[in-house]
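Predicting holo structure, 2-acetamido-2-deoxy-beta-D-glucopyranose bound.
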Amino acid sequence: MAATKLILALLLFLLVCSSNIASSKNSRRPKPCRRLVLYFHDIIYNGKNAKNATSAIVGSPAWGNKTNLAIPNRFGDVVIFDDPITLDSNLRSTPIGRAQGLYLYDKKEILTAWFGFSFVFNSTQLKGTINFAGADDIMKTTRDLSVVGGTGDFFMTRGIATLMTDAYEDDRYFRLRVDVQLYECF
Ligand SMILES: *[C@@H]1O[C@H](CO)[C@@H](O)[C@H](O)[C@H]1NC(C)=O
Ligand SMILES: *[C@@H]1O[C@H](CO)[C@@H](O)[C@H](O)[C@H]1NC(C)=O
Ligand SMILES: *[C@@H]1O[C@H](CO)[C@@H](O)[C@H](O)[C@H]1NC(C)=O
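Done. Tokens:
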């Protein structure tokens, strides 16, 4: 009997400890000091849309080419982009900046990418850059990238950007919603 009680007490103690660890892990996270929700629009060059394209395949595996995304899962394709950033999801809204950089597809078995890019702002309201890097597990509804730094209005910032695919058409257009939460603001 005493042994059973001891075991129960021990289990309870472990439970309390583990829940403390879990809650202190979250409570140690600061609140964001700034938040921006923006959209960017990517139109991939497909051999026919040179006028409208905002991105281009610049590298492809030996079995692919630069007008069609590689099979399977675009593995090995490297795409450079200069995409308009808008405040809402409308491609035709006045851009408030450009998303510039690259993404590369890095897994044969499923669709995943690695992103390295900047939001470049040059308007009366916003000036400067926010710089992003990280893995994009495209099959997930939301994906977190690191905000690794910034300049101008975003001097020395850091944070997390949550990506959501807001629209996707025929391998030729996609729109990402980017929820930027900054934890260091100066
Ligand atoms: C380019 O965009 C315009 C306006 O969205 C559209 O009407 C036109 O069909 C597009 N052209 C090409 C070649 O995709
Ligand atoms: C590129 O590859 C696709 C097949 O993935 C093929 O249909 C297309 O004709 C190729 N284009 C060029 C320019 O080689
Ligand atoms: C930023 O805007 C200013 C004023 O409109 C312009 O002179 C400058 O060339 C722009 N810089 C870039 C990188 O677009």
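Helices lie at 2-27.
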